[in-house]
Amino acid sequence: MTSTHYPIAIIGGGLGGLTTARVLHANGIDAAIFELEPDRHARTQGGMLDIHDDSGQEALRAAGLHEQFLALIHPGGESMRILDTTGTVLYEETDTGELDRPEIDRGTLRDLLLDSLPEGTVHWGSKVTTIAPDDSQTGRYRVELADGDSFTTDLLIGADGAWSKVRHVLSDTMPDYTGISFIEADLYNADTDHPAEAAVMGTGMLFALGGPTGILGHRETDGSLHFYLGHRADENWVDTIDFSDTTAAKAAILELLDGWDDDLRGLIANADTALTPRRINALPVGYSWPHTPGVTLLGDAAHVMSPFAGEGANLAMYDGSRLALALAAHPDDTDAALKAYETELFTRSAASAGDSAESLEMIFADDAPRGLVEMFTAMDRPGAIDDAAQQAPKAAH
């Protein structure tokens, strides 16, 4: 067994952890990231993200990467349409080219952050097994890894997602099931191989809603269609379907779409990938933890919420930048930095979690998509509050 000491250790190499390390690096502070995945190419990194000017883009400015980011965005990605179950378009807006919420592929953004860090910052294939206070010094933590290695750190940052191991150091609170489950899939080469589904998806984002069931999707930069079927159901509903048998799983899911437009049903029927079930979980709105020297959280570890306010990636990046800037502003007082960061974090995340919970209820309301259409229509009226769009739900972002 080997053991090393790192002044700052970040558990989790997602967008939040990477942003934290990058902003620290930009301020002359070293940090080590410990990431479960074996390497940067281990898996596809998901679909499109809309990066908000007042959060995700603000983090990229702090990271010194905003100009590079703007060169990588997806023109047209902010188009959006709302359909009912018959395929009728009830509301539609086109991408105006404004940069308040431009779209970018998650993998592209991750690469931008990874490439901005010094070689060796990310320790790949690091599975955390145990976290405990280190006996050698108050406020220091020892982290054991599955491969037998361990390390100590003066500041342990949990950027390790919804089921965070670092969170257990601070509280016993766990995410709860929200009542919504997702079924995720993709269609490739959409314009060529799936023209009907490509047409119903449109050029950007799709909301096709019908009470307790909805399809939420997006056209990707590679010409594929990435979508989620959301369904209000008991927590064990996904366990009643054999997702290892794609044909049978498709048949079971299509039963939820009886009477729906054929092109919308085609997203499931003609999916090129297996159907992947995902339960949507969230921490309680207003979740916080008692201040504890030497450890803190960011992103989903701190405030996992349903994805219907479009804040997940943006908040994780913004959290990371704010934590890093607080540490840079208090170079000799880490505890003061954590207190300043957490005070701001708790207020900000409670507001976002509340918005997310409200959006979930609106998207899967019995009369959906009425509420969503009314909300966007109200924004278009003269005198509408300019920032009302910040409350608009953005599926799975």
TrEMBL record:
Q: Can you tell me which residues bind NADPH?
A: 43
Does the record carry Transcription regulation as a key word?
Answer: no
Keyword Flavoprotein part of the UniProt annotation: yes
Q: Where in the cell is it found?
A: Cytoplasm
Molecular function as annotated in GO:
FAD binding; monooxygenase activity
Per the entry, which co-factors are needed? FAD
| First-listed, main subcellular location of the protein, grouped into a coarse class | cytoplasm
Residue limits of the FAD-binding domain?
Answer: 7-180, 295-344
Per its record, how is this protein called by name?
Answer: Flavin-dependent monooxygenase
Q: Which organism is the protein's source? A: Gordonia polyisoprenivorans
